[in-house]
Amino acid sequence: MIERLILKVPESVKYISEWAEFGNMKINGQVIINKKYAGCGMTTYYLTNEQPVILAAPRKFLLENKLAQLPHLFYYEVPDKYDKNVHQLLHEKLAQYLQDCINCKWPPKIIVTYRSFCKACDVLRDFNIPFQVIVDEFHVITQDIEMAAEETITFLRYLKMLPDVIYLTATPESEQDLSTIQDFRGLRYIELDWPNLKTATIISKPMISTIQACGYVIKGFQDNGYFARKGKHLSKEAVFYINDVSNIVSIIKQNGLKPDEVNILISRNEPKNKAKLSKLCSDTGMKFEIGTIPGKGERHKPYTFCTRVVFYGCDFYSTNAYTYVFADANSENRRIDIALDLPQILGRQRLKENIFRDEAILYVKTSSLNNLQTKEAFEKEKKQKIEISKRDSNAWNNIPAASRVNLAIQKPDSNYMVKYMDANGEYRFECNDIRILSDVKAWREKNKYYRKQGTIRINLRDSGFIVRTSFCPTPLDNFYDDFLEESNWRKRMSLYCDFLQEYPEYTEAVRNLTWIPEEFHRYYETLGTERIKANSFQQSRILNEVNQNKTTDDIVTAFEDSFHTGERLSKQEIKSRIQQIYDGLGIGKTAKATDLKQYFEIEETNVIVNGKKVHGYKIGRWNMS
Q1: Which residues pair with 428 in a beta bridge?
Q2: How many other CB atoms are found less than 10 A from the CB of residue 123?
Q3: Residue 550 and residue 522: Cα distance in Å, rounded?
Q4: What tens digit of pLDDT does each residue of 117-170 get?
Q5: Going by C-beta distance under 8 Å and a sequence separation of 6 or more, which residues neighbour residue 604?
Q6: Phi, psi dihedrals of residue 231, rounded to the nearest 5°
């Protein structure tokens, strides 16, 4: 069970550094902070406050981006290939930095990747400095588990031994998913509640392939001179999020793009990436290189291509860039986690003057029906993997510790076993819950969220986005935006009525919008626009009339059931039946035989009751049809 605390951010606060009370809260211990949106300055706050901080992040790009903004930081990063001399020099530099901070009474500020964190701590042990550890973009852990399981789990287990760790993100896993991970189970969970949080807009489009769809976008820019337009404002720069270097290379080549037009932001540490760029250079006769993120005021090229290495934490300062995202459900590394990736992507453009910063076009290729797997089949496969992983982990842990060092897990995708280093410096094996969750999420995305374009749009709305289906919005798209952005109930009711009065052809489409509260549909269908307007769009008055109408309908039904054409009844019998109807419906009214006139045609007559002739009515035709 996660202990949840919601902190309301004052309306005057735009950045955490402006919120004095936050600094006074002294948040410590092991805690998750959901800052809710990227760009609130929380990472910068921790890197500039008066507390010793070591910030661990998943990507070098993120740390290099922060270092460019805050040059006072000490960047500690262990080289990919072990070199004793280089390691020793790096340790000495960190030790000297810490000593300088102590001598000058500066709060040390260290930034490090997840993979280098434990090595940095080897140096920190020699200094009695009460560091607060900030694990930035910690949700990436569940995505990186397949690529770097040993480093990830070793990192997490080391963190569990530390007294003061903040797991920070704007897009955490769901509470249900977090509760399945032992490393996060039971942690305090703090969520920031920002007033007037702007909702981003996603224009969702189907595609046949990433290369084709991106080619259309590029051709549009080449023909028109801009990517998007809002009034007199033009977007002349684009950021393409494509998590596939081969696709990026093909797009550059097929569209004749030149190095001075293109910024390629991909991992520098992956040899395959360098080989693909080298071939691009050879094929085109031009020199393409892995780029860097421009700083404030620096030139932004028209085409920026990004893989997932820059989805998280990096800041762009373009004044007019438009965002394009490409997701292919049939390729595991090309799928986009709508709940986690898209908010991160939309949060990358930092400048308020960029009026396109809160909007993106998402191109999606849905799951191939041939590759879908039923939930039953997946659960059966998962159960088998868990059993194998537990069996193998137990067997390998019984091998002498010295012999475990060189053991390597073969075919890691076939089970959930991971190798990691424990607190004693010994290698251990376990059936890992993060790998299980990663597998579950991959199944959910491919077999549930990406099955149809309609399902994708529902998932987008459930994740808090305004969703459109075209660049030039239809009236229905505009209604989506207006209704979701409006929080006042009366104004929402007015929007609902005005829209359907102007566009009655959308009545069925609006009725099928399940994210609109049911009461709006019910009130409109019961009363219509004119009666709702007559009640000044006030909910209490509308509800009162709806209830009155409901009572009227119930009375009509009761009269129709209690009396029938052709019957001859005494006035006393008629009065008695009507009184039963009123009493049964809770209507405080005394019945009269003449009340029947409202529902039936009636004719004066005499009837025989107990051998006596008395006055009554003959019931004629039903009046209410």
Answers
A1: 420
A2: 18
A3: 12
A4: 999 998 998 898 999 999 999 988 887 787 788 889 999 999 999 999 999 998
A5: 615, 617, 618
A6: 60, -125
